[in-house]
């Protein structure tokens, strides 16, 4: 116990340097975690580590390749084989767009369940926020606005019925289409 | 003599209030931006504001918003006026916890001159509001009004949930000491917390609990910059002390005096436990990059020392007030301005729309600079290695001059208060 205390005490005074933080950065989302690990490893020239990070999300990639983007796994394999960092970054963005598509489409199927559809749209926004740095300003703004419209379209049950808004499937689908259009190349 | 002291203290209070109120509402960080967004529409999952939602603070800022202020003004003035209530509330808390008339004055002056009070006043964060309610709770405990004390403590937690260790422990000590007040304390605290956090759970559903797990883990392992984080690169309290040496000298003086007083005459009161736990909690579980975290333990230290009725502690408080007053010359003579972040945005708006790599205010910059491509420097260590290879103009916004310089072009935006970060913009030549 005392050792832990001393370790903590020492850690208070170990020299270090500040870095930024983003609240979307913490785990529980394998794709977001893998993105950071892969890009970090690739930028350091360590493609073995990048491959290991890609293997961590192999299940997700297989699923997304089957249902949403047929060339996705191949894009990852090629980028890792040729040790091409920009190509790897582009493949990660493709995976994120496929994941956003998957969640937003699931949102349409769950439009009558406010909490579920809200989580699906909000989590899509987290994936978007993670890749937003890769997008030019106009595309980022367009996708951001479209996601806001999607969130409005899922309605709101209100608190004990106060402030209740019904979901609007047509508006939701239009917002999803606008989001995917903004994210597409 | 006492009257003269109060006259001088109130004059200083007026000077500080006027200087602070002359500042325009201006967003200094992403966290403040999240509070402004949360005032317009509350949603923890969307970081409006981030977990745990700060429902008490948002409820108060919403009241100001509905009264006709803009969301930015509401958050700014709520924070500022909360901070301005701290000196009188400290005097009240000291008095009800046994301070002499001189001790009461010293608590007022000691808190008024605290180096990071202006930082918290302009931060647009919930610290000051949380501390204000906590002091009201401690004062009510001193007066024996346990119902009010528990309600204020509940409000403090609803405004600033990260104070739960000092607030919880001080309530627990009072709960142990005053058997007759146990029922009142439990019911009132629980009811206040249930009212605020129950509303949040009602709005957010079960995803609130999943976000709680994710966010708490992230705070201690990714972005919180706490002692529990394993990353090698992080600011420490030693770095913080070298950034603001005089402020930390006075803090050390207060800590040493408190340690001596505790050793000489050990006592178990809610105020003592609150002070000690706030010190330890801040040291281990708070981010040394944000010096506003230092305010709670220093406020409590001043009040506790002022309430001790010992001559030696009184002299130490006199000295610390005089030392701290010296720092005012750096503040009050400066012209008031927007936050460094807002000023850097003003500069970048006039530059060609291009790439910006930043480790400060990513979300706010993306909102305010719609034409720029903005990369979060956190996500990729060495992102600039990719960026620097591009031929298009690119900018880097950083809080430290020690970061690798791209070239000599360097525009700096100075801090408004002690403890606020200067921001620097560099271009890729």
UniProtKB/TrEMBL annotation, chain A:
Keywords: Signal. Residues 1-20 form the signal peptide. It comes from the Bacteria. This is Uncharacterized protein.
TrEMBL record, chain B:
The keyword Hydrolase does not apply. Coiled coil: none annotated. Keywords: Membrane, Transmembrane, Transmembrane helix. The chain crosses the membrane at residues 51-67, 74-93, 99-117, 124-142, 148-173, 185-203, 246-263, 268-285, 291-308. It comes from the Bacteria. This is Dolichyl-phosphate-mannose-protein mannosyltransferase. It comes from Pseudovibrio denitrificans.
């Amino acid at each position: 116990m005392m050792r832990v205390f001393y370790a903590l005490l020492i850690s208070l005074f170990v020299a270090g340097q500040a870095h930024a933080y983003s609240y979307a950065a913490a785990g529980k989302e394998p794709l977001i975690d893998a993105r950071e690990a892969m890009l970090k490893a690739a930028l350091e020239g360590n493609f073995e580590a990048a491959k290991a990070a890609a293997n961590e999300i192999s299940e997700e990639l297989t699923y997304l390749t089957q249902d949403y983007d047929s060339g996705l796994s191949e894009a990852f394999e090629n980028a890792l084989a040729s040790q091409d960092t920009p190509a790897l970054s582009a493949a990660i963005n493709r995976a994120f767009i496929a994941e956003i598509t998957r969640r937003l489409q699931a949102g349409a199927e769950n439009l009558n369940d406010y909490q579920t559809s809200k989580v699906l749209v909000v989590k899509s926004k987290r994936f978007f926020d993670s890749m937003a740095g890769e997008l030019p300003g106009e595309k980022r703004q367009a996708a951001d606005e479209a996601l806001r419209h999607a969130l409005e379209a899922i309605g709101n049950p209100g608190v004990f019925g106060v402030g209740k808004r019904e979901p609007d499937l047509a508006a939701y689908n239009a917002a999803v289409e606008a989001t995917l259009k903004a994210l597409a190349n | 003599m006492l009257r003269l002291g109060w006259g001088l203290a109130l004059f200083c209070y007026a000077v500080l209030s006027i200087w602070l109120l002359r500042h325009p509402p201006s967003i200094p960080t992403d966290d403040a931006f999240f509070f402004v967004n949360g005032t317009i529409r509350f949603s923890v999952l969307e970081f409006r504001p981030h977990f745990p939602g700060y429902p008490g603070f948002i409820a108060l800022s919403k009241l100001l918003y509905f009264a006709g202020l803009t969301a930015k003004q509401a958050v700014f003035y709520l924070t500022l006026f909360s901070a301005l209530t701290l000196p009188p509330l400290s005097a009240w808390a000291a008095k009800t916890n046994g301070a002499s008339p001189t001790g009461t004055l010293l608590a007022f002056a000691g808190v008024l001159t605290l180096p990071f009070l202006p930082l918290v006043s302009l931060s647009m964060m919930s610290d000051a509001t949380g501390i204000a309610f906590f002091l009201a709770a401690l004062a009510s405990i001193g007066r024996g009004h346990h119902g009010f004390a528990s309600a204020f403590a509940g409000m403090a937690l609803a405004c600033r949930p990260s104070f739960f260790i000092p607030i919880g422990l001080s309530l627990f000590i009072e709960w142990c000491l005053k058997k007759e007040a146990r029922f009142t304390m439990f019911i009132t605290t629980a009811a206040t917390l249930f009212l605020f956090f129950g509303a949040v759970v009602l709005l957010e559903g079960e995803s609130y609990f999943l976000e709680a797990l994710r966010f708490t883990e992230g705070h201690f392992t990714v972005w919180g910059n706490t002692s529990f984080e394993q990353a090698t690169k992080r600011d420490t309290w030693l770095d913080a002390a070298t950034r603001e040496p005089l402020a930390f000298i006075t803090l050390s003086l207060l800590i040493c005096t408190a340690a001596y007083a505790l050793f000489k005459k050990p006592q178990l009161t809610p105020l003592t436990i609150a002070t000690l736990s706030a010190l330890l909690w801040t040291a281990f579980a708070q981010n040394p990059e944000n010096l506003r975290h230092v305010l709670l333990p220093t406020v409590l230290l001043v009040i506790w020392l002022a309430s001790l009725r010992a001559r030696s502690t009184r002299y130490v408080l006199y000295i610390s007030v005089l030392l701290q007053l010296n720092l005012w010359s750096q503040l009050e003579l400066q012209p008031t301005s927007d936050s460094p972040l807002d000023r850097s945005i003003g500069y970048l708006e006039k530059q060609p729309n291009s790439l910006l790599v930043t480790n400060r205010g990513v979300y706010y910059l993306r909102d305010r600079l719609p034409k720029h491509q903005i990369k979060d420097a956190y996500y990729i260590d060495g992102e600039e290695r990719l960026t620097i290879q591009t031929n298009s103009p690119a900018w880097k916004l950083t809080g430290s001059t020690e970061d690798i310089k791209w070239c000599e072009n360097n525009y700096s935006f100075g801090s408004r208060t002690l403890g606020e970060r200067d921001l620097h913009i560099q271009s890729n030549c």
